[in-house]
Amino acid sequence: MQKILSLTIVLLLIILSINAETISLNKAKEIALKSNPGLSAQKESLKSSEWNYNNSIISLFPSGSLSASYRQSDQEFSSFGSTYSESGSYGVNLSQPLFMGGKLINAALIAKTSRDISKITLTDKELEILNTTETKYFSLIEAMNLLEIATDQLTIADQRVQDSQTRFAQGTISKAELLQVQADAADKKVSLIQAQLSYDVSYKDLKNYLLLSDDFEIDVEIDDSFESEISELNMIDSVNMDTLVDRIVTFSNSNSNTMKMLELSTSISKTNVNMAVGNFMPTLNLSYSYTNSGDAREDWSEYPWSSTLSVSASLPIFPLVDSYSDVQKAKADYRKAEYDFIDSKNGNALGVESSLLSLLSSARKYEASKLSLEYSEETFKQMQARYNNGLLSSTDLLDAEVMYKSSRMNAVSSKFDYLKAKSTLKKQLGLSDDSRLISMILEK
Q: Whole-angstrom Cα distance, residue 76 to residue 78?
């Protein structure tokens, strides 16, 4: 029964690989960038901020309008009867704000900064999607590898059960040893079911994230160039670790999208203070009109055109309490933004340092897991040979197998822990290229 279950899973995977499209990591990234609704929403947000900036610039230039009016009057007088008249006018009106207390300029500056924030937010969203796609893709390959390990373990356990039953029938092993082997096979079956569930969850997670309707297969072959970079990372001297951390954190503070957005948000708060102060300033407007008016029943060309040029000024004198409150509120918001920026900068430094150390730790763990796998595999082969020759008990063989299985799983997990850690650090530093990250760490 256990062999049938494992064979069924293997056949199912083979059938899926034949009928489904194979999606590489790069292809998955392309699909995610095209289909992610959050990214589409951010693109529309950027368009909105660009139009808002354009409007703020246009408000600095003159505005004009065409005007026309028509009036009909029929008045009655008790002693003179009634009079009837029709009149109208039309013309052109132009206006130009000369000074608005700096509000128009500051509004344009805020609109420009908001547009810049939208651009950075879009870039950060793209990096987030790439990071998430990589993480989910690596998780699926990891789950697939662990499923293969569980399948192999169950196959070996089934074979050992058959061999143990034969040996028990021959009287070479005890009932206790047979039961131990059978219990181990049952445990392997449970492990396979859990591995299959983990694979199914990871598969559906990536499928839903990419918004795919059809089944797909992934390219399980990962570029092994990361092994050479792991070797180089493991050569980093711990004495120079503080210098490395400071260099990476300094780069993050200037290149991280999160820090860029916080810095721009702080500048908006500062501009809001200037706008609030502008409420105390006078305003100055220039207007010009060119109109013609007269009796609508006659030829208007006989009436002369009139032009008016005027300058109007206004100075707020009462009440001023609300303007003062606006200034104080804007200053408090600005101070809060500065403190938030400092706090976020410290938090960013801690997060980047943690991710960097996690990357270096996972690199060392991967090298160690490879050695552990090599040694445990050789040990298991020797123990298996001794067991086949009747020189080793099933208990000792199971102990060696547990060690070998643990080493295989650690090797798989450590590899993908490294790849995920590298993807996370790239996102924090605002990078999309693996080679640039490694070159920066190694100072190439």
A: 7
Question: Please, which residues have CB within 8 angstroms of residue 176's CB and are 6 or more apart in sequence?
Answer: none
Report the relative pairing of strands 216-218 and 21-23 from DSSP bridges.
parallel
CA–chain centroid gap for 154, Å, is: 40
Choose among 292, 242, 270: nearest CA to 91: 292
Q: For 309, phi and psi rounded to 5 degrees? A: -120, 125
- C-alpha closest to that of 57 among 20, 23, 100, 107: 107
User: CA nearest 154: which of 203, 189, 119, 124?
Assistant: 189
List of the chain residues with pLDDT < 70:
1-20, 74-84, 296-302
Strands 63-77 and 81-99: antiparallel
* Contacts (Cβ under 8 Å, ≥6 apart) of 238: none
Instruction: Give residue 36's identity as a one-letter amino acid code.
Output: N
Query: Please, which residues have CB within 8 angstroms of residue 182's CB and are 6 or more apart in sequence?
Result: 161, 164
User: How does DSSP assign 334-389, residue by residue?
Assistant: HHHHHHHHHHHHHHHHHHHHHHHHHHHHHHHHHHHHHHHHHHHHHHHHHHHHHHHT
pLDDT in tens, 32-59: 999 999 999 999 999 999 999 999 999 9
233: Cα within 13 Å, side-chain hemisphere: 26
CA distance 136 to 130: 10
- What is the pLDDT of the chain when averaged over all its residues? 88
- Residue in this structure with the two tokens 């143990």, named with its chain if needed: 164
Distance of CA 303 to the CA centre of its chain: 68
pLDDT value of residue 12: 55
Residues ≥6 apart with Cβ < 8 Å to 108: 53, 56, 57, 59, 60
* CA–CA distances in Å: residue 144 to residues 6, 151, 270: 14, 10, 53
- State how far the Cα of 180 lies from the Cα of 396, in Å rounded to an integer: 11
Long-range contacts (CB closer than 8 Å, 24 or more residues apart) made by 5-14? 5/154, 5/189, 5/192, 6/151, 6/154, 6/155, 6/158, 6/192, 9/147, 9/151, 9/192, 9/196, 10/151
Model confidence over 299-340: pLDDT tens digits?
A: 666 678 889 999 999 988 877 888 899 999 999 999 999 999
